[in-house]
């Protein structure tokens, strides 16, 4: 593999008895990790070391996100939730659910 991305989403959820309606608010890329081969291709040895480090640092610290709901529509997000998640496990910090033939783990971010 040449690179590994960390992709995150922010969502609000509205809990039912056995499932959760999910309204996604934003999605983004938090970090990029390059393999040694990718680093060599992007910043070859013929480039001065300081320039190599700057290019690699900018790539690794890159982050971007896009809103998935307009801010005015967040209040009505429960009625427009885009997915349903069957709850398998939930506690104060984690929610494990099943949807679309896959398992999803949600972790609460500290406020």
Query: Mean pLDDT, as a whole number?
Result: 77
Global outline: elongated
Terminus-to-terminus distance: 34 Å
Q: SSE string, helix = H, strand = E? A: EEHHEEEE
How does the helix and strand content classify structurally? alpha+beta
Proportion of helical residues:
10-25%
Major beta sheet, specifics?
A: 6 strands, antiparallel
Number of helices: 2
Question: What topology emerges from the helices and strands here?
Answer:
Elements: E1 3-15, E2 19-34, H1 36-42, H2 49-60, E3 64-67, E4 83-90, E5 94-99, E6 102-107
Antiparallel strand pairs: 1-2, 2-3, 2-4, 4-5, 5-6
Q: If you had to describe this structure to a student in words, what would you say it looks like?
A:
The chain has 111 residues and is an alpha+beta fold. The protein is 17% helix and 48% strand. The protein contains two helices and six strands. It has helices at 36-42, 49-60; strands spanning 3-15, 19-34, 64-67, 83-90, 94-99, 102-107. Strands 1, 2, 3, 4, 5 and 6 form a six-stranded antiparallel sheet that branches. The radius of gyration is 19 Å and the shape is elongated. The protein starts with a strand and ends with a strand.
Concise description?
17% of the residues lie in helices and 48% in strands. With 111 residues, it is of the alpha+beta class. The longest helix has 12 residues, at 49-60.
């Amino acid at each position: 593999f040449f690179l590994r991305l960390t992709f995150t989403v922010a969502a609000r959820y509205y809990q039912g008895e056995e499932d959760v309606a999910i309204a996604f608010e934003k999605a983004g890329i938090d970090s990029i990790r390059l393999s040694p081969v990718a680093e060599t291709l992007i910043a070859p040895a013929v480039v001065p070391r300081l320039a190599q480090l700057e290019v690699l640092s900018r790539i690794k610290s890159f982050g971007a996100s896009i809103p998935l709901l307009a801010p005015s529509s967040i209040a009505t997000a429960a009625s427009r939730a885009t997915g349903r998640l069957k709850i398998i496990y939930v506690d104060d910090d984690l929610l494990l659910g099943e949807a679309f033939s896959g398992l999803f783990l949600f972790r609460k971010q500290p406020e």
